[in-house]
Amino acid sequence: MNTLEDRLTAALRETGEEITRGSVPPLVLDSPRRRPRVPGNASRRRWATRLTPLAAAAAVAAVVAASLAISATFRGPAQGRGSAAGPSRGAPPGGPAALRKVPPYYVSLTHGSNTYILGGRLAEVRATATGTVLATIRPPRPFGAFTWVSGASDDRTFILAAQRYWTILPGNRGAKAQERDDTTPTRFFEVTFTPSTRTARLTELAIPGKVNTQQLAGVALSPDGTKLALDFGRSIQVITLATGTKREWLWPRGGWVGNFKPYGQVLSWTADGRKLAFQQWGGKFDNTAHVRVLDTTQPGSSLLAAKLVVTFPNKLGVLTLEPGSDNALITPDGSKIVVGTMTQARKSYATMMAITEFSARTGNIEHSMDQFRFDSPACCQVVLWSDSSGAALIVSDPRGKAQAGTVGAVIGVLTGNRFTALPRAPATNQIAW
Amino acid sequence: MESNPRGSAAAFAAAEHAGPGGHGAVRAEEAVTELYEAHALGLIRLAHIMLGDRSSAEDVVQEAFCGLYRRWSHLADPASAVPYVRSSVLNGCRSVLRRSNSRRSLAPPGYQPPESSAESVALSGEERREVMRALRRLPQRQREALVLRFYLDLSAEDAAATMGISPSSVRSAITRGLASLGRMLQESS
Fold it and tell me: Is the ipTM of this complex over 0.85?
């Protein structure tokens, strides 16, 4: 290489290195429901050019109006640096009293910075009020990772799903690791936590059949800890743990049951262990979302028998559920469906996110809380736990910062539209109370 | 936790392994995010070299990945994702430069937009600034060919695919670009 090429290469390299790895901003993807740009003819483009300043002014006015409306909805002063151009900060902060309204211990799966890796290398039992790690659980050999967690209502019993290989590590192991994962069944363990000794005992459960790791899309332990519901996308199975008996309901139409793995639970039980709420999505080109409630005591084997409570159309400008990322839970008393919802404006990318409570009987909206507005599609607000009636919730919300397809939001208790962050809570949605 | 360079092929393999009913949008999001994690740094650097402006470079790369996300289901070959995004970034850079050129035409005579941030100008050596200044005076095709060849170390075939021209045109642009660059640097020294 001659001197000129050396000089050019060095100059290019030095200029490129002005951008450091740590300074790369997160990716903010469009919503899949964002309307595609339709190429217009020249005159339309000219008109668009002329109308742009007017449209911009109208957009600013609309955003200001929306911000004022949001501010008026909440009591107390606006929080943080919420502005017409920036994200609002959602519910005002609450106090430590809120932490007494939720169970004292939780189990979280600990992973690293990559939020798309399912589960974690270990599970931690933590104190809700302080975030202190009380016990650490490692998957017994030959298992390498925990992938799902769910809790019973006694606050001592949890279920962990374990698998042998770490899920999807592109670049490190590539397709072979995935293939191994596809063929390595998931196994389940019961965790019994003893607060006095800060110990967690792990017992493997006898689950009939082979649970395909890639197909497993949700796990929910019944409140009394006797039944385990498993979501396989096109079916739901309920296993009675004492006997190993299995009952299965199939989804006979297009679409699937469940959610994308990191984004919170899609299955939830009522306190009596009779009804199971789940999300169901439309087919490939119809991402309409439905929340249904299945009475597991009734005969039948079709999920079509489950009561349809709420339908979220895949449309701009209306309250909906972001396909694959938001989630819904039924309150233990069976009265409400609590959903992480979003509304994306028809003619801009402005997105309003909220936690919305629907009547499980009528499907009507009862409350809307913890609202955030972003100028672009944002993700995600996840419902992680509910008390009996939905008066106290544990949610994961963006706290004023748009999430680019990640789950790195803040976890906290939401009581009457007041948000109390959980101290030292890990940034994960694989967490259970 | 294991390190995670997150390669593109596996990311798309993950996308292709959609579950029953297809978690299409989410899988696309996953795949594109993984690609972004693996390639954003290099592409932002590329755009930064082409534009001399960091925030514009970030915008261009962001837009390129959003474009990939919107069209990911139409991508016939997963392996073409990175060349596709690279081409999008180059196209985005062209658009930004076109816009800035038209803005510049309204500016007072002699006005030149800043090539880099004040901080980077202070830190960078005179030699480098001189080379970059000369590079930015080259015609677009020659500039792109030189950057793809000497920064990304692409072959003429790969650069041609990225630029949407033939390999012989790339070789010709590189030869002419180097000659012009040499002349400009000689004049300025």
Answer: no
This prediction's pTM: 0.57
Q: What is the DSSP string of B65-84?
A: HHHHHHHGGG-S-GGGHHHH
Chain centroid to CA A319: 17
Instruction: Name the residue facing B128 among A14, A234, A260 (closest C-beta).
Output: A14
In B, residues 60-89, which contact A (CB 8 Å cutoff)? 62, 65-66, 69-70
Q: Residue B22: pLDDT band by 50, 70, 90 thresholds? A: very low
Q: Which of A33, A34, A116 to substitute to test the interface with B, most B CBs within 10 Å?
A: A116
Contact across the interface for B19 and A178, Cβ inside 8 Å: no
- Answer yes or no: are the C-beta atoms of A371 and A381 closer than 8 Å: no
| Burial (CB count <10 Å: 0-12, 13-18, 19+), residue B9 | middle
Cα torsion A22, A86, A54, B53 to 10°: value is -20
Q: Which helix (H) or strand (E) holds B46?
A: helix B24-51
pLDDT in tens, A290-319: 999 999 999 999 999 999 999 988 777 888
Question: DSSP secondary-structure letter at A306?
Answer: S
Q: Which of residues 78-137 of B touch A (CB under 8 A)?
A: 116, 120, 124-125, 127-128, 131-132, 135
Residue of chain A minimizing CA distance to B183: A4
Cα–Cα distance, A21 to B109 (Å, whole number): 38
CA distance A150 to A329: 13
Q: Any idea which of A147-161, A244-258, A280-294 has the lowest mean pLDDT?
A: A280-294
Residue A237 corresponds to which tokens in the numbers above? 């199975």
Dihedral sign from CA coordinates of A256, A260, A261, A267: negative
**A15: chain B residues, CB-CB within 8 Å:** 45, 48-49, 116, 124, 128, 132
